[in-house]
């Protein structure tokens, strides 16, 4: 008997894992946003925990359905935004994960997920928190994508505005996590 997956299909874009170790694939615009969150291992730990338990997405206002409460490679997640019949579901699969390592020192934690059939985009998005040797904590989002079909491409200006809006919500969520807000 085969296990029923939360979302069907396979990753649907070239350059799987490129947010971790390479340039985006040709023809996929890339957006990198980085934000200062504060100082110290406690701040880093709170944000890392929030990223690796889907809390970043939830605090961003997304409805999150997932196969795993912890972010793990291969886990599938469907994020939803909008209201009622105007809800857009965005199925993804986790392609890489970095967990915090014990002790101090420079490190980063986070993950990336890639799109599955039914997502309005085709591409990958990564969420990472890092701490440097001085204790500075930064949050970075790296995303490359293009529209999945003509319908979303036709709404290009709206789609880009939506991406900027969601990115700003992720940044606000990361700031809440850094501050230890409930």
Structural descriptors:
182 residues, globular, seven-stranded antiparallel beta sheet
**Percent helix among the residues?**
25-40%
Mean pLDDT: 88
Please identify the structural class as seen in this structure.
alpha+beta
Report the biggest beta sheet as strand number plus sense, adding barrel if it closes. 7 strands, antiparallel
Instruction: Tell the overall outline.
Output: globular
- Strand runs, count: 7
Assigned CATH class: Alpha Beta
- Sketch the topology as an H/E string, one letter per element: HEHHEEEEEEHH
Radius of gyration: 16 Å
Plain-language structure description:
This protein has 182 residues and is α+β, with helices and mostly antiparallel strands. It has a single domain (30-179), classed as 2-Layer Sandwich (Alpha-D-Glucose-1,6-Bisphosphate, Chain A, domain 4). The protein has five helices and seven strands. Strands 1-7-6-5-4-3-2 form a seven-stranded antiparallel β-sheet. A hairpin with a 5-residue loop joins β5 (107-115) and β6. α2 crosses α5. The model has no long low-confidence stretch (mean pLDDT 88).
TL;DR?
The protein has 182 residues and is of the alpha+beta class. It has helices spanning 18-21, 41-51, 55-59, 150-154, 156-179; strands spanning 30-39, 63-66, 76-81, 88-98, 107-115, 121-131, 136-147. The chain has one domain: START domain (Alpha-D-Glucose-1,6-Bisphosphate, Chain A, domain 4, 2-Layer Sandwich), CATH 3.30.530.20.
């Amino acid at each position: 008997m085969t296990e029923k997956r939360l979302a069907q299909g396979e990753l649907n874009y070239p350059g799987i894992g490129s947010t971790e170790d390479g340039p985006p694939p040709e023809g996929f615009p890339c957006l990198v946003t980085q934000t200062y969150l504060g100082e110290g291992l406690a701040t880093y730990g709170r944000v890392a925990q929030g990223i690796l338990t889907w809390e970043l997405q939830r605090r961003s206002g997304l409805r999150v359905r997932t196969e795993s409460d912890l972010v793990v490679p291969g886990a599938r997640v469907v994020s939803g935004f909008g209201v009622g019949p105007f809800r857009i579901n965005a199925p993804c699969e986790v392609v890489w994960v970095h967990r915090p390592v014990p002790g101090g020192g420079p490190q980063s934690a986070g993950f990336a997920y890639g799109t599955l059939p039914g997502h309005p985009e085709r591409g990958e998005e990564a969420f990472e928190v890092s701490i440097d040797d001085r204790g500075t904590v930064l949050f970075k989002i790296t995303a490359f994508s293009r529209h999945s079909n003509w319908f979303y491409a036709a709404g290009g200006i709206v789609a880009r505005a939506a991406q900027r809006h969601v990115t700003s919500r992720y940044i606000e969520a990361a700031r809440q996590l850094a501050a230890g807000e409930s």
